[in-house]
Amino acid sequence: MRKSFTILWNSLRLTFQELKVNKLRTLLSLIGISFGIFCIIGVLATVNSLKLNIQNELSSLGTNSIYIDKWDYMGGADYPWWKYQKRPSPKYRESLMLKQRSQLASHVAFQLESRSTVNYGDVSLLSVNVTGVTPDEQSINPVEIQYGRYLSSNEFKFGNAAAVIGYTNAEDLFGNPERALGKAVKLFNTKVTIIGVLKKTGASLTGFNSDQAIMVPYQFARKYLDEDNASPKIIVKADESISSEALYNELRGIMRSIRMLGPRDEDNFSLNKVSAMADQVNSIFGSINLGGWAIGILSLVVGAFGISNIMFVTVKERTPIIGLKKAIGAKSRSILSEFLLEAAIISILGGLIGILLVYVLTIVLSGALGFPVFISMPILLLAIFICLVIGVVSGIIPAYSAAKLDPVVAIRSK
């Protein structure tokens, strides 16, 4: 053990001495490793952070939920929008029939969405996202209340002019969001009482920003919105014990029955699984990760040749010293270990520079994207492992050639 520490200490000392004496040569070799690690870890950290953020947002849509709409959410290059446009929109009565007939669904919600102006005194908010919701909405897509309360069962039942408002909207209308409680705003040319303020969540990559939204009972919204033109959708959620595939098959059968489609008739609705959206996200980010690996590996190969070149030059410069060490009893494996450690240390130094650059990148991206971008511990350990492997692979041939030197020939060399 003591001998191993001695070899490690000597390797560290000689490595830093090499850095000090041959700054430019070493720096040029480190650039390849640094850039390679920056590409790989930078892409992995950014993509994993983005992926985690989107997955969290998709989870907020209901981990085992299906959105029934006339539109297919998966999109694509050959998206037949003209076909979906002709489909009938989901209806509230269909959501009631689904809830009655489904054996697997635990919650069924109906939702309308529109843009409208909200007024309070002399202040007007244009194009506010107004969502008409039914009672099961909170069980499927729960929202947190910062001030006040959520919509009550009676408000849902009778379609009362009550609303829960987003934090930013409350701030824009009243200055202090807490002051929004009990105030009457003008929505659809009707006075609506604010009963709650949503907790601030920030922008969402899924397109919905609760901070800039206002939620009202469906029975109230339907009085002022044309149901067919208010992005109607039915949202169905099952317990986690139920597979999304089983729920999908049941809902497809029920919807075909409700719409009285014949055996040969094509579906005139889309069942959009949240789990399928998550799979698509994983596929997209997997491709991005591969791109980062491809660029990074190319840079690492260049860096590996640089380190290998340094080690060959170092072996040549230290040949007399190597001969002297072997003459006084140093074993070949000690010489081999010394040079391998030196190569690994140089590679790790390059990797640390790359990780430092990635850290700076995460700070910049966190501010620009509006969500935390970070280097996770597995990614950090991966970076160190890559550096170790690159260092050992780059140094193996120079180290082996040093270990096999004849002590007499080595001492006489200049």
Decide which structural class fits the backbone: alpha+beta
What is the CA-CA span between the terminal residues?
34 Å
Would you identify the regions where 5 or more consecutive residues have pLDDT less than 50? none
Helix content: 55-70%
Number of strands: 10
Measured on Cα atoms, how large is the radius of gyration? 32 Å
> Count of helices?
14
Order of helices and strands: HHEHHEEHEHEHEEEHEHEHHHHH
The count of domains is 2
Largest sheet: 6 strands, mixed, barrel
Instruction: Bin the strand percentage.
Output: 15-25%
Estimate the mean pLDDT confidence.
83
* Large-scale geometry: elongated
Strand order of the largest sheet: 2-3-8-5-7-6
Q: Can you give a write-up of this model?
A:
- The protein has 414 residues and is α+β, with helices and mostly antiparallel strands.
- Helices cover 57% and strands 16% of the residues.
- The longest helix has 44 residues, at 274-317.
Q: What labels would you give this structure?
A:
single chain; alpha+beta; 2 domains; 14 helices; 10 strands; 57% helix
Question: How would you briefly describe this protein structure?
Answer:
This protein is α+β, with helices and mostly antiparallel strands. It has helices spanning 2-21, 23-60, 81-85, 92-101, 137-140, 153-158, 167-174, 218-221, 244-258, 274-317, 319-327, 332-369, 377-403, 407-412, and strands spanning 65-69, 105-120, 123-133, 145-148, 162-165, 184-187, 190-198, 213-217, 233-238, 270-273.
